[in-house]
Amino acid sequence: MNSELEGTIRSRPVYGTLEPREGSGHLMVADGEGAGAIVDLVAGAGAGAADMLARTQIIYIPGPNGTDQSDRLRALNAWSFFRANDYATAQPRLRKVLGDAHMGLQIYLSGTEGLIGQAQRDAIEAGLPHSAVQTEFRGSTVRRVQCVHCKGITENVRTDPFKCSHCGLNLFVRDHYSRRHAAFQGVNIDAEDPGHVPPAVERFK
Amino acid sequence: MGLDFFKQETFRDDYTFRNSPEAIRRFPFPFAEDSYMYSVNMEPHVAGPKGSVFEHMFDVDEHYLSEMRDRAMVLRDDPLRCQSLPHMTLAGWDLLELIMESKARDYPDWFELHKTGNRWTWINRPMEIEQTFTFLNESTLPHGPMEYITRQTQGDFTLQDQRDNNLWIDAGMVTTQADWSLDFDIGMGFHEWHAPVPHAHQMGVFDRALKFLLKLQLGAPVRRFNWTMTVDPILDTSPETYPKWGPSKATLTLDNIGHRQHLRVELQSLHRLPRSNAIAFPIRAYLIKFEELVTMPKWARRLHRVVRDVHPDLATYKGFLRNRDLMVQYLSQFDDGKPTSPGWWPEPE
Q: What positions of B carry a catalytic annotation?
């Protein structure tokens, strides 16, 4: 488990370490530093790596901190590699792949919590079993937060409190996490004393 | 009782809600002793004394029509307060059946249910509703079954699906909540949706409660109390609308606290459902003003001691830490230090 994500509550997801598994095919989705987890995963397959890569699709998105390790993943020479600038752009392709999935498809997700959470949600919505999905956290700890008031999602939240990018309220970031929204919850911090907003602290990097 | 039993009152704007002397006498005061800490505290939901809130399976009281009007307004402003994941429709029918049969049996002057095979006719006199529909056929009702019946029943409701040795909060009607969001929590497992509660996880409360509930039997419902504090008689203290009701917490004084501060008690019950094997969880909120509550000397003494001694983390989680000292100051006037008798029933002096 990652020390930088410790000490939180029971709705918070826990992440593991990606391990090669037998499967009819392999789907790897990563962002930012998550590329390193994919490279390590393939290395861990040893002699089976070539066979695994011949049945692997990779979708990669640069991290919210700007980290772009596309070259490392492209160099793996997987059966297919696709790079998108953000999750929304990758999503239609990901959903198509998930919808076309055969029994036995193995899914590997690595990188930030926002990427892992959204891809996991899309995999479950497509009807894939939890047991087929592995996750590994790497890279930026910025959060994807849903404003409980206006329901708008703010991506890549770095500070606590922060200003909702939709309604403008000052929100504090709870550890309470919804897999369905793939987001943490943001709640108005100065509701009881409007205007009394503590200074923003950089909690997520 | 006739239909004039039901009061016309508001839970917003001019806040005309109040309890009659009879409603105060039957109020479900949640503290059986002079202190409070979390516990699983579940007991069989069996019929209680005549006139008590336990007399019937689903208590219908003088606030019924006004509460249903408030619910309709909440849903108009935010339809996401009522949601049901696609696999929960059958559980919704189970709930509709449970409520209609209970109310028709317990309150025959107000509610009737007539069945001819799957052709049912439901009469709700207080709300002036007469509806004929086909049981298990959604297209014959104006809303889904859970929404239809819970627009006519006091209290919030959630429906828990049972699978993988867990309970999943997969449907709900939530408009009178103590600051939690159905839209955020829907789909969560038992420990996930309770995640923000302090201390109770470490005490093992949720592990024990889940183990107990997974074995809940059809026809053997259970109940427990929960409680919090609410400034002004607002049913809809949701996180969604927190910016609207939050500021009121900063306006209490020793002069107005008796009238504006309310103890909010949830009578929660849990019912196994027959077809879906889901669990229905009604969360019925009762509000009482401090000035109403202190008319019962035993309750006044006890509430003073509970609020004074409650763990600050609980007061924070329940959202009243900032006013705790003021509450204690107000309530101390009614505590002469005399011992209180066990149990929560009021006693005349």
A: 224
Asked whether residue B347 is assigned to any structural domain, the reply reads no
Q: Say if CB B168 and CB B214 are below 8 A apart.
A: no
Is B337 among the domain residues?
Answer: no
DSSP A21-33: ---SEEEEEEETT
- Fold that domain A3-137 belongs to in CATH: Rossmann fold (3.40.50)
In this predicted complex, what is the ipTM? 0.89
Dist CA B75 CA B97 (whole Å)? 23
- Select the residue of A149, A181, A191 nearest B247 (Cβ to Cβ): A191
Q: Report chain B residues whose CB lies below 8 A from the CB of A175.
A: 195-196
**In which domain, by residue range, is B286 found?**
3-332
Q: What is the pLDDT of residues B220-258, one digit of tens each?
A: 999 999 999 999 999 999 999 999 999 999 999 999 999
- Ordered by start, the domain boundaries in chain A are 3-137, 143-202
Q: Tell me the Cα Rg of chain A.
A: 18
Angle at B6 between CA B2 and CA B8, to 5 degrees: 145
Helix or strand run (H / E) with residue B208: helix B205-214
Closest in A11, A185, A188 to B243, CB measured? A188
Q: What does the longest C-alpha to C-alpha distance in chain B come to? A: 62
Confirm whether pTM is higher than 0.90.
yes
d(CA B158, CA B170): 8
CB pairs under 8 A between A and B: 67
Query: Would you call A187 and B239 a contact, using CB atoms and an 8 Å cutoff?
Result: yes
